[in-house]
Design a protein that fits this description.
Largest sheet: 6 strands, antiparallel
CATH topology: SH3 type barrels
Strand order of the largest sheet: 4-5-3-2-1-6
Strand content: 35-45%
Distance between the termini: 27 Å
Oligomer: single chain
Radius of gyration: 13 Å
CATH class: Mainly Beta
Number of domains: 1
Helix content: 10-25%
Number of helices: 2
């Protein structure tokens, strides 16, 4: 699991797509729950939403910066690929806004 990857993820009876946002060193530690953001195909524009571009997996879907998920590695199903660096930068900017970080 690497920062910037999108995964199919099962949580209870629901299936999601998530973007891994925690750093790779943290993600590689056994027993630690990495962090991700939920992706939705029907999220409204505005707020803390980042749309996936044509070069990303799931183009047109949206990353909801407020939908933070602690990732259970056992619930990961399929690696769908990486987002483009520009998309990850937009997510980082939205996260900084959400968390009121400089």
């Amino acid at each position: 699991m690497i920062r910037g990857q999108i995964w199919a993820y099962i949580q209870g009876s629901r299936q999601y797509r998530i973007l891994i946002i925690s750093n790779d060193e943290f993600n590689g530690v056994d027993g630690v729950f990495p962090w991700g953001l939920r992706i939705s195909r029907d999220a409204p524009d505005g707020g803390l939403i980042v749309r996936l571009d044509l070069g990303d997996p799931l183009p047109g879907a949206a990353v909801d910066v407020t939908a933070v998920v602690r990732v259970d590695r056992a619930a990961l199903r399929e690696n769908l690929g990486f987002v483009a660096p520009s998309t990850l930068n937009a997510v980082e900017t939205a996260l900084r806004d959400f968390l009121n970080l400089p």
